[in-house]
Amino acid sequence: MLGSIGYFNGNQSVTSPGMASPKWYGPLEMLSAVPSRPVFPRPFLWDDGFHNLVIQRWNSSLTLKIMNSWFNIMNIDGWIPLEIVIGSESVAKHGTIHTQPDTDSNPPSFLLTIDTIMRNKQMDVQSLKDIYPRLKAWFHWYNTTQSGELSSTYRWRGRGANKDNRELNPDTMSSGLDDYPRATHPTDKEYHLDLRCWIWLAADIMSRIANVVGDSHMSGQYIETADLLADNSLLERLH
């Protein structure tokens, strides 16, 4: 795991619904572990959250540096790309410019990492205060841009049929569970239970983070969101 950690720098190709063509986002600097040096030699957002559940047991300071490098590439809306293809090795392996839509992202697994470090008392209050504004923006991005058509539902963006039409079940790359069985014909009317669970978990952890940094108002709001999403009767009615 430690051998997979690398430093990356460069510009990421990004697209947005309001853009006529992709733009370069950067320059970016990243410190990140990668899923596989020979196959996937580039940072993936949700993978690295899980990587650091292991890394923090060996060196929590290193995990904080890695997390900060991810939060430092967040845009003004709270979006973090789900994967970063920068640097000669990453680009050469991928073979093409890999454009990231700013409507898609991975699950916020770094909140699990932060929660673990907090429980192990390896993260001081000042470190939490330093990243708290970005954590708030991150949660807000998920809770608003990934919402479904019905109240308290959520939908992964980025679903779509394979261009060669050979996929019976279109991939949902943003979810992290790329080939998890979902509707064969993606529409805006879908709502995804796994994303609902991630938002519940994020709200629950954010309520505790807000409490630690002294933001009682937001802590209460996060608790309300978590309680709503934990309502089993609502869950059964919707899902």
Number of helices: 8
Helicity range = 40-55%
Strand order of the largest sheet: 2-1-3
What would you call the structural class? Answer: mainly alpha
Radius of gyration: 18 Å
Task: Report the span from N to C terminus.
Answer: 37 Å
- Please state the average pLDDT score: 92
Quaternary organization: single chain
Largest sheet: 3 strands, mixed
Tally of extended strands?
A: 3
Strand content: 5-15%
Poorly predicted regions are none
Order of SSEs: EEHHHEHHHHH
EC number: 3.2.1.106
Membrane topology: Single-pass type II membrane protein
GO molecular function, one term: Glc3Man9GlcNAc2 oligosaccharide glucosidase activity
GO cellular component, one term: endoplasmic reticulum membrane
Give a written overview of the molecule.
There is one protein chain. The chain has about 240 residues and is mainly α. The protein has eight helices and three strands, in the order ββαααβααααα. Strands 2-1-3 form a three-stranded mixed beta sheet. The radius of gyration is 18 Å and the shape is globular. The model has no long low-confidence stretch (mean pLDDT about 90).
